[in-house]
Design a protein that fits this description.
α3 (about 255-270) packs across α5 (about 290-305). By secondary structure, this protein is of the alpha/beta class. It has a 6-stranded mixed β-sheet with strand order 10-11-9-12-13-14, with helices on both faces. The chain has a 5-stranded mixed β-sheet with strand order 3-1-8-5-6, with no helix packed on it. It has a 3-stranded mixed β-sheet with strand order 4-2-7, with no helix packed on it. The protein has 2 domains: about 5-155, GTP1/OBG domain (Spo0b-associated Gtp-binding Protein, Chain: A, Distorted Sandwich), CATH 2.70.210.12; about 160-360, 3-Layer(aba) Sandwich (Rossmann fold). β10 (about 195-205) and β11 (about 205-215) form a beta hairpin. The protein has 6 helices and 14 strands.
């Protein structure tokens, strides 16, 4: 499924109805007094997070959303009817910002979450509110308030526990298809992935996490090379990044160490906070390297890169090493959920799943 992850809309709330200055006029009642009613409230516009919606495609075509105005007040103490509010259903993970100021209006992260986008105007007051012992025939009334108007930018950022990073053809799509239910396009040419993919990785009963795959990043992406940085926003909500490295590139002139450093540099240019997220190194395509050469190839790569984080050796094609990687990821994700108080897997569910530092399958870091 293709992600429509950006849209620009305008929301206009309804104006409040005007109050009215009116007096009771009946036979044999010459001084009936004021009876002007208030105006009705204008309709407001809300955004509602809906997990059944996956894209912002509806808002690419419906750009203007206007609520109705409140009715004006009438005589005989008749108040104007308030207008109905409008609720715009949006995908969970939508970030709503003001186009003029750039301020974040709402961040829809939970199903059913509601956020006010534009408030409707309050109705005006009729002259019935201005009567007093010294002003028995008031002719004052107030007009309704205008509704708010806003130009908004909608940005969808997918919600995932783990994000995949890597150069084109590093094997990210093969990895996500091997460990999850996602079925991305896989081919032997660069930029096969043109939009994000989400997959649910099931470790066991009621034990799972969500992984996101985005298009490959190349050197110069900050200047617009390749697909640029337009999809990296989808990784900003993840708690863990997997840096997938092609350890056996088809082109012998390609240096995996240089590519790994270039990707880290592009990540820092896009968002320093994203670059500071926990990042694990996943050395892929070991099936392309003869068994007797693997240790030397991996040792040389780690020595030149001077990597100080966790390292995993896998083959996404043959699924070698994938089980150990998935188990370690789930332990890390579960620990983060518990620390964040998000109601992650309980201790019963985590029984038998070692923490990363206690996992004998975890490869120690190399200087």
């Amino acid at each position: 499924m293709k992600f429509i992850d950006e849209a620009k809309i305008e929301v206009i709330a309804g104006n409040g109805g005007n109050g009215i200055a009116s007096f009771r006029r009946e036979k044999y009642i010459p001084f009936g007094g004021p009876d002007g009613g208030d105006g009705g409230r204008g309709g407001s516009i809300y955004a509602v997070a809906d997990r059944n919606i996956n894209t912002l495609v509806d808002y690419r075509f419906a750009k203007l959303h206007r609520a109705r105005n409140g009715e004006h007040g009438r005589g005989s103490d008749c108040y104007g009817k308030g207008a109905e509010d409008i609720y715009l259903r949006m995908p969970v993970g939508t970030l709503i910002a003001d186009r003029e100021t750039g301020d974040v209006v709402a961040d829809l992260t939970d199903h059913g979450q509601t956020a006010l986008l534009a408030r409707g105007g309050q109705g005006g007051r009729g002259n019935i509110h201005f009567k007093s012992s010294t002003n028995r025939a008031p002719r004052q009334q107030t007009d309704g308030e205008p509704g708010e108007e806003r130009e908004l930018k909608l940005e969808l950022r997918v919600l995932a526990d783990v994000g995949l990073l890597g150069m084109p053809n590093a094997g990210k799509s093969t990895l996500i298809s091997a460990v999850s239910n996602a079925k991305p396009k896989i081919a032997d040419y660069p930029f096969t992935t043109l939009h994000p993919h989400l997959g649910v990785v099931r470790v066991g009963p009621e034990r799972s996490f969500v992984i996101a795959d985005v298009p490959g990043l190349i050197e110069g992406a900050a200047e617009g090379a390749g697909l640029g940085h337009q999809f990296l926003r989808h990784l900003q909500r993840t708690g863990l990044l997997l840096h997938v490295v092609d350890l056996a590139p088809f082109d012998p002139e390609v240096d995996p160490v240089k590519d790994a450093r270039a990707l880290a540099s592009e990540l820092s240019k896009f968002d320093p906070e994203l670059a500071d997220k926990p990042r694990w190194l996943v050395l892929n395509k070991l099936d392309m390297i003869p068994l007797e050469e693997r240790a030397a190839r991996v040792g040389d790569f780690l020595k030149r890169l001077r990597w100080k984080g966790p390292v995993f050796e896998i083959s996404a094609l043959t699924r070698e090493g994938c089980e150990a990687l998935v188990t370690a990821i789930y332990a890390e994700v579960s620990a983060r959920r518990r620390l964040a108080g998000m109601g992650g897997a309980n201790s019963e569910d985590d029984a038998g799943v070692p923490l990363l530092e206690d996992d004998p399958r975890f490869k120690p870091t190399a200087e």
